[in-house]
Amino acid sequence: MHQDTLGFSMRELRLYLGLSQAELSDGICTQALISQIENNDVSPSAELLYQFALRLGVDINYFFHMRETPRLDYVNEVIRQVRRHIKRREYSEVEEILDAEESNPLFRPVKNQQFYLWHKGICMYYLHKEADTALQLLDAALHYTTTTSKNYSEREIEILISMAILYSEEENWDRALPLFHKALYHVRFFPIIKDETIEIRLYYNYAKALSTCRNYEKALSIAREGFLLCRDKQRLYLFGELSYQCGKLNYLLNNQELASEYLTTASTIFQLDQNEPFKRHVDDYAKKIGMLPRKA
């Protein structure tokens, strides 16, 4: 049985839910017709397919592997939980969720499988230290959808950033920096980025990589873009970290007054965010370079 057929999709989901053919057909059609559909001998009418979808608890598009996500409520909740754990660096929790959903047919459509591979790769790196396998999974996830090298979706931009970060962790700057640059290009030319944290995360990590490679001027330019985005959009996400980056980079470039201003801003943001460890780190750095943070 071909795995890309309507009949296969229906059979796979029915078995996953523990339904017999008789239970699925009850009040809708004959059991024999279910068998014929699953064997791809006949095609159901639109009305029959709609009734099957209702009984199986999915959107009718599930059977055609359309891009619209089946069971949006359930799948979106799984995605939300995974992303929340990722931001907290709780990779064990992410892996536990992914393992639980591995055989779930709801995660077989292209977009959901891409999400699964993407986060499986992240877990392989941070939990199991398998860099090659992790990057192979991310690359597979990146090429799972149908956009081209000239046109990346928001999801694909996120995967590019993840790949760049992993290469940075491995200190493979020849791979990391071009990926950051490619992601930045697509962020700037993508019509609408719905999630502003994607862009902010890119600026922060790209500036961090450039700074490590001692390209301080470019790093400052990128970090400042991120700082301005946070300020203009009133987003606290990485605002303190980007302020600290700008302060440190200005100091390295001998812009003492600007360095003091950014470090003071970073200290204030972390104080408002009740992030005492980060505030202490900023204040300690300011003292170390002889630049006590100003009082607000």
UniProtKB/TrEMBL annotation:
GO terms for molecular function: DNA binding. InterPro entries: Cro/C1-type_HTH, HTH-type_regulator_Rgg, Lambda_DNA-bd_dom_sf, PlcR_TPR, TPR-like_helical_dom_sf. Residues 10-63 form the HTH cro/C1-type domain. It holds the Pfam family HTH_3. It comes from the Bacteria. This is HTH cro/C1-type domain-containing protein. It comes from Guptibacillus hwajinpoensis.
